[in-house]
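Aim 2 progress. For RRM domain-containing protein, the working sequence is reproduced below.
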Amino acid sequence: MRCPPTQVSYARPSSASIRDANLYVSGLPKTMSQKEMEQLFSQYGRIITSRILVDQVTGVSRGVGFIRFDKRIEAEEAIKGLNGQKPLGAAEPITVKFANNPSQKTGQALLTHLYQSSARRYAGPLHHQTQRFRLDNLLNMAYGVKR
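Predicted structure tokens for this construct:
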């Protein structure tokens, strides 16, 4: 029995010219295929990867996709050429912009995310919350009465 040949994927060398060449595209027609999206963007450069997001249950396009170009300059040209344009079959113009890179979160954004996470139930320390509902405070707020 013969095994199928092994496929090897090589990492691209890292440099400033290829970094951050990933685009986020929204407003795509729900009927647009991945191949059609690649054809639309290929006029701006060499596409490394592309993907259209689909609903897990229905398999229907969400109208959102990602395109990764070989070089950042190609991605910039695609933004200039396609952002705000209406591709064939589209009712509305598409939005083309650089995709957010999760590794580029600033310290402040990370702190904000952690502070607002669902695991954090109270906005402040517990004693601050309970103090707000003391009878003295409630009477004062409702009737202007101080005990």
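The chain is about 30% helix and 20% strand. This observation will guide construct design in the next reporting period.
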